[in-house]
Amino acid sequence: MAGSMSRADLVTDLKASLRDAAATFTAAADADFVRHLDKAAADMHRVRPRTLIGEVTILAGEGEYDAPADILRFKSAIWGVRSANFPNPWDRQWPGPLPRCRLIDDNLLSMYPAPTHQQIGLFGSAYRFYYVAKDAIGGQANETTIAAADRDLLLLRAQAEAMLELSLRDSVRPVQVGGGFGQQAKTGTPAALHAQLMTEWMIRGKS
Question: What is the pLDDT of residues 95-118, one digit of tens each?
Fold first, then answer.
């Protein structure tokens, strides 16, 4: 059974999995381990992208709108998807080219060309779309956006983040991590362990 997805429980298990390496992270309130987990969560979209549906109210001639707060990247529009009776370019009622949408500066949806009165009349003012959402870890398990089934994958990525930080400190002492998640414990320099753990994370994440 997967363990709790709360921040506190994830920190506890991450610390245990890092073994002797955990003692090198001494920030108050487990801030180091919280940082490792947050960075791991931010990277989970590469192996477990989370697709949501967003909606903005559009106006004729207006091409810029606030994006959802948790958007990572825009995927595709639902609004204006062609139906069997959609006008062709040679028909008099053709509404012109539909807006192409992209994400600007992580917080702005930019549509070009801007939607027209005719397009809004055909498809409505509620512009719905698919987007990949950012992941986050919450204080309570139900506030964590990562699926409980991917808990071990998240912890593996957090282990790799911890080893990256150790390698950036120019540490050359062998350290040991693992002993959980059904894996054998690994011993080596932080840089080597980071590379090994990232490779394992990518392989397991794509399987």
Answer: 889 999 999 999 999 999 999 999
CB 187 within 8 A of CB 174: yes
92-97: which pairs have CB atoms within 8 A and are 24 or more residues apart? 95/119, 95/122
**β-sheet with 126-133: strand ranges across:** 50-57, 126-133, 71-77
Helix extents (H) in 78-187: 117-123, 151-168
Cα 29 to Cα 42: distance, rounded to the nearest angstrom? 21
Preceding omega of 89 cis (within 30 degrees of 0): no
- The reported pTM is 0.86
- Ordered by start, the domain boundaries in the chain are 7-47+146-206, 50-133
**Quick one: how many helices (H) and strands (E) in the chain?**
5, 8
